[in-house]
């Protein structure tokens, strides 16, 4: 994810530390933020969703396959935020057996029909309604709220704003629109069928396998993601977009979803993407791992940009006209940042928010790597200096890169995880030398791919090289 505002550009008033006279609740300092305990693991998530633009609801049917992580269990606890739960059943072939469950509006506690072992897989069927606008959530610096699913101008009442729907999972917002274990140390393959008004195009993770026109003027698009990724990286977007296809990367689709009046500029803003994919693949010795790479620009987006696997979402700051682009592409480093997350974040995922550095410090540093390759060391060093200043100005002294104590998980998205972490990687690269640095990154990625990683694994990867 990229923050809405670069820290360096924040007004001083926002950077100031709270005064001594303000009462501060410091009870969070005693809470140890460990990795989520794995009792059941996600295996596969299959969704069939429709949208109600009048109510800003999503009507979902879900087939969720899980397996006990190690010990036998006869129950499962799932995240499901602010939903109406209509039915919870166990699938047995094509037949369904209703299950007993308790639901408190946040957690769905299901009693299974028997005890399962780690050699078993079981598939739940859940019929639900997602109501993101009726959810009460805490705000944060990175994401102004955490509704997970956003309807933009759903009734078309606002002039000049196109109707769109998009999702924002990080940190734990995906469980507003589907039932899951909404933790970064879980991974699942996925299928999504989105039924939408036929005039809209859709985007999700993986590949669009088929589309079917329905008699009621809607169309059902079926998206499939064969490789596992974390629930916070799930994405759906829909709207009246132009889809600009760039030259493929090794046969994989590279495309840009922009509003139609922005189509003439899409290649100028995003057109370096295939070269970036080639550059990062070569540098890391790990080829771009996913089936395609698409980027969408969403209206009224609540963050800067988000690295949903194969389907990055950018805020409309990405839109630039010829006059603006004459001064250079102001969004290029963000494009590099989100693309690099496809390895650091999506392929190997921070095991917990305490370990966010293994996602964000790398994405931050990729901006330097791209600048250095494309525009030379001086240009990159200027960016390096600005990011360093951003950290120094942020008043973050005394915060560790890996932090097991924080007030809110959103607090981890700060100048330490980003700016300072990126500078530490730069220091490390200069210390061990380029060959050892990139060989170590390759080792970390190949050792931990499709799994979670933490700073300890990064250290071991460096030590082994
Ligand atoms: Zn990021």
Structure description:
The structure is a single chain. The chain is α+β, with helices and mostly antiparallel strands. Among the domains are: 37-131 and 174-233, Immunoglobulin-like; 345-464, Neutral Protease Domain 2 (Neutral Protease, domain 2, Orthogonal Bundle). 25% of the residues lie in helices and 31% in strands. It has 10 helices and 22 strands. The chain has helices at residues 12-15, 263-270, 273-284, 322-325, 332-341, 357-375, 377-392, 416-432, 434-448, 455-464, and strands at 40-52, 57-68, 73-79, 84-92, 95-98, 100-103, 107-116, 122-130, 149-152, 164-167, 188-197, 201-204, 207-213, 218-229, 236-239, 241-245, 253-259, 292-298, 305-306, 311-315, 348-350, 451-453. The strands form 5 sheets. The protein has an 8-stranded mixed sheet with strand order 5-4-8-2-1-11-14-13, with no helix packed on it. Helix 9 (434-448) packs across helix 10. The longest helix has 19 residues, at 357-375. The two termini are 29 Å apart. 43% of the residues are buried. The model is unreliable at 6-18 and 139-143 (pLDDT under 50). The structure holds zinc ion (ZN). The site of zinc ion has 6 residues, from helix 5 and helix 6.
């Amino acid at each position: 994810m990229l923050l809405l505002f670069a820290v360096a550009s924040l007004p001083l008033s926002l950077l100031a530390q709270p005064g001594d006279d303000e009462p501060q609740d410091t009870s969070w300092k005693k809470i140890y933020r460990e990795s989520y305990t794995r009792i059941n693991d996600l295996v596969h998530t299959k969704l069939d969703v429709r949208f109600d633009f009048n109510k800003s609801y999503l009507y979902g049917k879900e087939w969720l396959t899980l397996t006990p992580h190690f010990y036998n269990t006869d129950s499962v606890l799932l995240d499901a935020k602010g939903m109406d739960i209509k039915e919870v059943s166990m699938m047995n072939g094509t037949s369904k057996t209703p299950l007993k469950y308790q639901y408190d509006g946040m957690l769905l506690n299901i009693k299974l029909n028997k005890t399962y072992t780690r050699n078993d897989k079981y598939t739940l069927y859940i019929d639900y309604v997602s109501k993101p606008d009726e959810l009460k959530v805490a705000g944060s610096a990175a994401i102004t709220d955490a509704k997970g699913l956003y309807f933009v101008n759903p009734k078309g009442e606002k002039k000049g704003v196109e109707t769109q729907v998009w999702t924002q999972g990080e940190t734990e917002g995906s469980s507003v629109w589907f039932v899951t274990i909404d933790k970064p140390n879980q991974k699942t393959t996925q299928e999504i069928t989105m039924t939408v008004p036929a005039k809209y195009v859709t985007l999700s993770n993986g590949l669009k396998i088929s589309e079917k026109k329905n008699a009621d003027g809607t169309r059902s698009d079926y998206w499939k993601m064969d490789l596992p990724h974390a629930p916070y990286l799930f994405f759906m977007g829909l709207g009246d977009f132009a889809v600009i296809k760039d030259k493929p990367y090794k046969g994989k689709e590279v495309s840009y979803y922009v509003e139609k009046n922005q189509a003439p500029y899409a290649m100028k803003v995003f057109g370096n993407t295939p070269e970036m994919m080639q550059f990062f693949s070569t540098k890391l010795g790990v080829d771009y791992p996913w089936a395609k790479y698409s980027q969408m620009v969403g209206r009224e987006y609540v963050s800067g940009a988000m690295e949903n696997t194969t389907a990055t979402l950018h805020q409309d700051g990405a839109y630039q006209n010829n006059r603006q682009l004459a001064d250079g592409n102001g969004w290029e480093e963000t494009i590099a940042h989100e693309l690099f997350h496809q390895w650091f974040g999506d392929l190997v995922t921070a095991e917990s928010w305490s370990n966010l550095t293994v996602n964000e410090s790398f994405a931050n540093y990729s901006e330097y790597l791209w600048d250095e390759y494309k525009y030379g060391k001086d240009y990159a060093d200027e960016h390096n200096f600005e990011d360093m200043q951003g950290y120094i100005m942020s008043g973050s002294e005394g915060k560790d890169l890996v932090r097991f104590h924080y007030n809110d998980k959103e607090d981890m998205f700060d100048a330490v995880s980003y700016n300072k972490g990126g500078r530490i990687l730069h220091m490390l690269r200069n210390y061990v030398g380029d060959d050892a640095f990139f060989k170590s990154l390759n080792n970390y990625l190949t050792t931990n791919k499709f799994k979670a990683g933490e700073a300890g694994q990064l250290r071991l990867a460096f030590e082994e090289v």
